[in-house]
Specification:
GMP Synthetase, Chain A, domain 3, Rossmann fold, 31 strands, single chain, alpha/beta, eight-stranded mixed β-sheet, seven-stranded mixed β-sheet, binds 5'-O-(acetylsulfamoyl)adenosine, Luciferase, domain 3, 637 residues, globular
Amino acid sequence: MSYPFQIKSIEQYHAAYKKSVADPEGFWGEVAGSFYWRKRWDKVLDWNFKDPDIKWFSGGKLNITENCLDRHLGTLGNKPAIIWESNDPDEHHRVLTYRDLYQKVVQFANVLKNNGVKKGDRVCIYMGMVPELAIAVLATARIGAVHSVIFGGFSAQSIADRLQDAQSEFIVTCDGAYRGNKDIPLKSVIDDALVQCRFVKKVVVLTRTRIPVSMIKGRDLWWEDEIKKVETMGNPDCPAEEMNAEDPLFILYTSGSTGKPKGVVHTCGGYMVYTTYSFVNVFQYNPGDIHFCTADIGWITGHSYIVYGPLCAGATSVLFEGVPTWPDAGRFWDIVDKYKVNVLYTAPTAIRSLMSYGLGPVHSHDLSSLKVLGSVGEPINEEAWHWYDENIGKGKCPIVDTWWQTETGGILISNLAGVTPSKASYATWPLPGIQPVLVDESGNELEGNGVSGNLCIKFPWPSIIRTTYNDHERCRTNYFATYPGMYFTGDGCLRDESGYYRITGRVDDVLNVSGHRIGTAEVENAINMHAGVIESAVVGYPHDIKGQGIYVYVIYGNTHGDENLTRQDIAQTVSRIIGPIARPDKIQFVSGLPKTRSGKIMRRILRKIAEGEIDNIGDTSALLDPSVVEEIKKGRL
Ligand code: 7RM
């Protein structure tokens, strides 16, 4: 397979960029031409950011799974599509060729159909990192249903909220999941969620850990039994459903500045074109390369760069069930060595965590197959960047620092490995088709170099968010209303003297903890459910490994009893309500919070204190009672 749109030199990058701005429709029309469409589009792009109403490849008909699977069968049928590495290094790995994957997807697509799933229905997928997760995702897409994957670390309450919001009547899950030394009882978490979701009709359960589960008659089915039924039918074909380019492909929930996660909607045509285009160009993927993205498929990074981008490109994608540090901190390097991985794509939090174990686990493995390293999820600090470069890339692998979001569908700002220059802790330049602008608080565009502001994008790209599920107005106000005529990212950004972009972090109330997006309001809501809590405020603070940690200020009712037990209890509440990823790191009891006369909590002050900048908290004259600040400073953890 060759990629006619692959950029191979810096001159080609500049030429592509120029064309993408001068003639976006011509540019993307050409890229889209190398995919398989049942019917070609009538119009490349129709858009306005006011509503917003964005349509790419209108009139085009396709099914993304024909591009991921069917199209490759002739040429790549016997080539590995997915290499699965178990959590347990002693369990045998699995290789699924493109033909194997195709057959399994078709089989499971028939399972979904047999159970009444129809085009447009939402299918919630809550599974560990097993090949069947990718199979379930693709099978859903094959019949034109809409997948909503929920990360295995979310709690029953978070699942129930998402099921309700998306009105998902179908669930695919596992009995349990292995992650490091933990066994997570996924089906039991689903059972708890479903107490509140009586509209759910079917739950298909894959056997993974053999933890005992309870099955509800008529509702719960074993994956293996359902597959047998399809086999008894003689393994019928499952022709892909013909989709409009703008039909929804999936919903993925992500945190914002309010207490309720948003269901980001991506559509079939544009998402396919942009994830594949960015995959090939950013990582400079060449046929035969082994691509290892360490993210979970429950996050956008897994959707775009484990499943859809790589498979559309006919790549070999490594799917890893475990965690970086179990059974030891050499786990990634073991996998790189074992499969001769060429591209490794991971998160700064993983790099920092592995750094803390020293070089022993690195040096005991052969990493010479590596050609390209990638970083995603949060700003990568210079120290981690250099460690990655020197010790993993041995100074010869370009590092791509890829900036993007759930809402952008694919990478928007990044160097192209070995093709455009890299710079430690800079995402560097926009991909062709991406027009970033920096704006000040009043929305004025900051032109020229050497400026910092809020990062917006002023022109659509094929995988831009189309809507937030069931609430288009929320999509408008969140992303398109702050700076009219532009998509607002929520990130702060610097454009240096040479025109390189450096993302500095969120400018809204969204935290980034170990690369996971968590809203401060979401955590506050969970904390406030605890009976003893009167009021709370949540801020982020710099954390050596997680990037940001969660710092909580709590006004607590009953001050008798053991403070540490109360802390544990509050942390446990957050874990139960949202999931372990949102568990607070520090909980400080206070008697009051710094508020303005109008009753608004001044988070700026709380942030400064949590960051340890107690001598530099700025103006407190707007406070109703400035004395609370002194008390909070004294009690700082
Ligand atoms: C892909 C993903 C999005 C937020 C985003 C940023 C931060 C992501 C980088 C980064 C600096 C990067 N989607 N972010 N990548 N910050 N440099 N290379 O992470 O929706 O979960 O998070 O993550 O703040 O707005 S996400």
